[in-house]
Amino acid sequence: MLEKKKLRLKKFTFHPITTFIFLTLFVMFLSSVFSFLQIQSSYSRINNSNELENVVVSVDGLFNYEGLKYLISNAARNFVSFTPLSTLIIGLIGLSIAHASGFIDSFIKKGTLKINNKFLTFIIIFVATISSIINDVGYVILIPLSALIFLANGRNPLLGITASYCGVAFGYGVTLFAGSAEVNLVPITEQAARLIDSGYHVSLLSNWFIIIISSVIISIVGTYIIENVISKRIGRYRLNNSAETNIEETKEIKIEAVEMEQQKKLEIEMKEKKGLRLAMLAFFLFVLLFIYMLIPGLPGSGLLLDTNEKVYIKQLFGENAYFQDGFTFLISMMFLVVGVAYAIGAKTIKSDKELIEKASVYLKDVGYLCALIFFASQFIAIFKKSNIGNVIVAFISNIIRQLPFSGLPLVITILILIALSGLFITTQTAKWTILAPSVVPLLMQNNIAPQFTQFIFRAGDSMMKGFTPFLAFFVIYLGYLNVYNTEKKPISIGRALSFVYPYCLLISITWILIIALVYIIGIPIGPNVSPIL
Question: Are 431 and 421 in contact (CB under 8 A)?
Answer without folding.
Answer: yes
